[in-house]
Amino acid sequence: MNRAKQLEDLADAIAALIPVLARDPECGWREHFERSFAWVRRLQASGCTQPDLNELSGSVMHVYGGHGSFNDYAPLLSDGHGGFNLIPGTERFSELAGAVYESALSLRAIGNAV
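Request: output the structure for the sequence above.
Response:
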């Protein structure tokens, strides 16, 4: 396992997701991912242990579960007639959100192997 590569993959995934979230002025999740991105960059700069990676992974992933979670979010605008449309520029939202989740999951390990 190349943890540095996995951490870079997570950074890349979050960096791609943030501007998509920024297209929705009502999105309350962007701040979480901006903090997560800053955390990744701190770990890359200072080094990290497997417990550090597990903690980061858990923090990123915890917003994906439960009622009212990030899984329930979609970047939509009302069409004014009771329907909704994707906000322009957010067409890859599901793909990017999935990539963040999978990248965070890949960092998890039981034990202290690095």
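The chain has four helices and two strands.
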